[in-house]
Specification:
By secondary structure, the protein is mainly alpha-helical. It is about 65% helix and about 0% strand. It is built from seven helices and no strands. The radius of gyration is 14 Å and the shape is globular. It binds protoporphyrin IX containing FE (HEM).
Length: about 120
Amino acid sequence: MNEKSLYERLGGFDGITAFADDLLPRLQSDAQRGRFWQSRGDDGIKREKQLLIDYLSASAGGPMYYTGRDMKLSHAGMKISESDWSVFLGHAGDTMAVLNVPKQECDDVVAFVLSLKADIVEP
Ligand code: HEM
């Protein structure tokens, strides 16, 4: 059992940071989805990016300790819909394509993200 963790296979801290660096501006500038980030200050955006990096890293088997809130608590009340969710997945796919993430790792990231759907999307 010497299989590498998903964290290592994604390129560790640098790989996951590159993912967040590319993905967040796509979401924030999206015509409809931008509403979630309207009127937020620069520091708030930076803190959220760091929390995303820590969360993904810790969840993928990296050495970080995630200090943020869980997915249900942090997204409750935003009214994230099915269509918001599809747009999110589309942007995440575009980011992984730009970063040349291999298919196996893309599949693993998508499977992980899908496991969070019930906590993030509101009925
Ligand atoms: C359509 C999908 C999504 C939207 C619109 C969205 C939006 C947001 C927004 C606006 C915040 C800031 C909340 C605040 O400052 O109070 C946030 C926080 C966060 N999101 Fe998402 N999110 C989505 C999906 C995801 C997914 C799939 C993940 C994980 C892979 C994720 C991870 C996080 C984390 C770690 C935080 C920080 C939690 C904290 O502040 O303690 N989000 N999200």
